[in-house]
Sequence to fold (814 residues):
Amino acid sequence: MALIQISEPGQATKPHERKLAAGIDLGTTNSLVASVRSGQTSILPDSNGDELLPSIVHYAQDGTIHVGKEAQQYKISEPLNTISSVKRYMGRSLEDIKSKETTLHYDFVETDSSVPRIKTQSTAVSAIEVSAEILKELKVRAELTLGDELVGAVITVPAYFDDAQRQATKDAATLAGLKVLRLINEPTAAAVAYGLDKASDGVIAVYDLGGGTFDISILRVTKGVFEVLATAGDTALGGDDFDLAIVEWLKQELGLSENIDRSFTNQLTHVACKAKQTLTTEQTTTINIDNNGTSLSIELSREQFNALIEPLIKKTLMPCRRALRDAQVELDEVTAVVMVGGSTRVLRVREKVGEHFQQDPMVDINPDTVVAIGAAIQADVLVGNKPDDELLLLDVVPLSLGLETMGDLVEKIIPRNTTIPVARAQEFTTYKDGQTAMSMHVLQGERELVSDCRSLGRFSLKGIPPLVAGSARIRVRFEVDADGLLHVSAKEETTGIESGIEVKPSYGLSDSEIEKMLVDSTEHAEEDVAARMLHEQQVEAKRVIEALAAALDDDGDMLSDDERQVIDNAAKELVEVSIGKDDRAIKHAMEVLDKVAEVFVSRRMDANIRKAMAGHNVDEFEG
Amino acid sequence: MTSSMETVAENISLTQNYFELFSMRSSFDVDLSKLSENFRKLQQAVHPDRFANSSDKEKRLSVQRAAFINEAHQTLKSPQRRARYLIELQGVVFDDQANPVMSPVFLMQQIELREALSEVKSKANPESALEKILAELKSNRTVVLDNLAQQLNVPENADLEKASQLMHELQFLDKLQSESEIIEEELMDSL
Fold:
């Protein structure tokens, strides 16, 4: 491991030192990693030159894990040990999965925690762990290509992902040892890739039909700022459903029985997918199937295929209308329609979307890579490689967040399409005389009944003073950060008793579970983890010191000499301990520095606000 | 975690009146393009994306400020929330749940609209029937908003009771509006 260089506080780092950052599209069917190198954004290929990493993980008998193409070859021979489309299971309970899939593709096992696991021949794995394997592969690929460790990555998620699914994605990254700079929505990333922030101002509709998910986002772009106005979609609708429609048609046309085994189903899905792809260029295609030695052959025309998928495409247009309405935008205000996701290669999809929005959709950038490209551009800006870029993404909460109240009803606290970050508080009171505890149930969804919404978590506030019903004042605060993740806390106002929870979704992993997995995943568990912790703290310390030095350089004059002295001392202390081997001491020194620097940080932030509004006050207040 | 709320309160810029935050005069009529321009400028300055590489403290402060600016922006952007905010700035707490005294004329209009809405689906041409209702709702809304503007453009001189009554009328209209939209979606679904 390379030694970390730590500069003295006050000494700014080299201005042209570029930080390595990547954009990752963790897709249902394929995943990609991209990065900005010498001003050019490109997909990073593997050693064979392949850009797409099939999102498939194979668990071999001996415990070996194969990812991507290597895993793909086991798909037909070992369907149960070869996990694909795992994104569909992210943040989902077994019950959810059962309700969505008529036949389960894998053997799921219940666990003590509510995260379902898929049983393979070597081990039982959660969707988070499977995704982490894919992310690890991409991380290795990026670091090999770029030649050094990544500072961080931007990972994309469907705009319509709920809190549980976002949290699961972030957990997978943590497990893969990736620092998440930001989770961003796939449609927003696509708009960035098209450089629409540099083009003229307007309203953009991003139609994103992937393998397993559909999103529509309406964005307004003004001088480099993307403001997501509304988003809608369906987390269980995508190109895979087109394949299924062909499979069902095949079964019917060929008189195949309903109860066919898994590997034959996989074969049918495979040929169906091929046929779909062929029909993007050909008018007709021949599908050949091997049914236990008997070969079957059948023709499928583009017209027939269009008819099969017509209802599925129609299902995507409803959310388009809703999103426009939520955005309070008229159809004729839409200045560009961006197509994302491999399934937008299907010509009928382009035609129908073009008809709907009354204009030709943009299809110039490969729909498979456009999201990763956009994520890489955003990652480059986030790590500070482009200080003058005006690019800013203002995203929204895709689904309303609320709490269960009396009578199984949901009280919405943050409505859908509220710009994030957002903080809202609401007061509740006790229902019975002398009630000393209150249980909170956090939900996400648009419906009024608890049972129709997604349960994100439960927690309780204890020690409420026994008062007459209705007189306790419990303030519940919801905060959604810039990644779209929810944090909830509650406080009894008269006593100040507090209860805070990270709303780990009901179907998410606890921090200790993640930590345990990290330990389990390394062979020489303890030393490795200790070394990793130390390394992480040192990297973090370096970052903190550099950031502070740069800030002091710019705005040191906001501090009195005494204030400056206190900060300098704490920074010096941090520099000293970070050379050592004690990760806890480094962490402590960082906390101390963080605390003493608060005044400075706060003053800088407010100076920023004043600067942004400078020159406005005089004329406008008088006018 | 909840302590962040208090941190917000201690801070000068975050106790600011929303109008002042955006360098605007307190008034019901706002220049929406100026509002969104200033909103973007403020977010450019404080959004967490500008602090992705900074200390945790900075990140936290930035999230709080960005959230405050978002809240202020959404309040001033929506006529309904802006009106409520102006009323509350005058020291009156607007109560959603209160049973307001409504003018009989307005109530009659509402009852008729509601009846028309309940009959939409049985009409020969439900789409056009619904369209007519939506158009009427829109024009009713314009009238209420004009009246609110008259009351609240100089908030110090407002008849707050009258303004609160108008707010209740707006709530009635919004409720009908969202019910109409649900029916619209059902109609589109059944196409």
